[in-house]
Amino acid sequence: MLMTLTVLGSVGVLSLLIVIIAALQRRFFWVRQLAFPLYVAAGVATLEILALLQPGYQTVAVRHVLDWAWLFLGLITIFRLLGLYLFDVHLTARREIRLPPLLPAVTMTVIYLVTAFVSLRLSFPKLDVTALIATSAVTSLVLGLALQPILGNFFAGLVISIEKPFRLNDWIKVGEQEGRVVAITWRTTHLRTRDNDNLVIPNGKMAEERVLNYYYPHPVHREKVRVGAHYDEPPYRVHRVLLDCAAGVRGVLDTPAPDVLIVAFEPSSILYELRVWTDDIAQAHQIASDLRGRIWEEFHKEGIVIPYPIQRLELARPARPRPEADGVDDGVWPARLYVAEGPERGRSLTLDRSAPATVGRSRSCALPLSDPNTSKEHLRLAWENGAWVMTDASSSGTRVNGKPAERAVLRPFDRIAVGDTVIIFET
Q: What CA–CA distance (Å, rounded) separates 236 from 426?
């Protein structure tokens, strides 16, 4: 009866010590770092209490076991303190080396195992450790076969910690899933998705899948938004409106600058792609949504049509209507000037065949420009002999389609360069 009470009391003491250590482990850093030696100390203290309460058990063999336990406890405490100094103080704090999270844990586990075998050999010289090691090897083989998936995830996590294909707070894509890395454990990697859900992926799966890291070598990411515009809209107009849409949207970087590509000629529209840069991939969907809203608004203001994907069959080509001037149909379409590049980009001027139009720096011109390389009256446009004619009136010259010209008969979509300003002739 006394033996039973002694054993129960020892077990109660051991349980109490474990609960106390677990509670202190959550609050204090040093207790958390020395958790394993403290648990071993609790076990050794319980054995000592049991030996004191039962003097009959204080034999030579029991004393040798207790001596080994104290030796093992002292060695692992020393090694743990050395490990804390090496990993946390010397490498991390002084040399500022970021160690893989699993490396210190795996290193200390190996040291504990080696210390256990060495201390057993020192405490029990006659003990055949070879048989114990062989038995441990067979047991490890059986356990390895049974725990193959878990061990595979463990070693995959070790490789991830050493190779560092991604780190904490990196935004990655694994297969069809993507999110921010919030934890890398010995078995799994945790991602926080855009929906604020916690996605747990086994490390073995991470090693097999292709991983796209949006934060390496830098977090700058390009976001693309595609939109179709009507064939009647000149590409340079759509290009300018799309670039204006990117300005002022939260999250869009000014450097690198946004750009626009013509992707394809679709059956019902010309497909454009607005490409912008952002440094927060987590907000990419919101940025793309804001851009689409701005595109709709700016297209609506500029009268640019986003056509529906329709097909039209014409059995007979209808006669093309022609505007009339002064009640006479002379087959001439209205013309206008559109500023594609320069301080006044986006401004346009409708030309009147009955009166010449001037372009220059003077406010009295029909199309005034603020370009410092522009003369007060830089050029003149007039309707002559059934065509619009440009006459240069400046000292710095005018270029039409990249070539210097003092006088030129204009055709649709000719580019007139006035200083750093580019004006397009439209009909």
A: 12
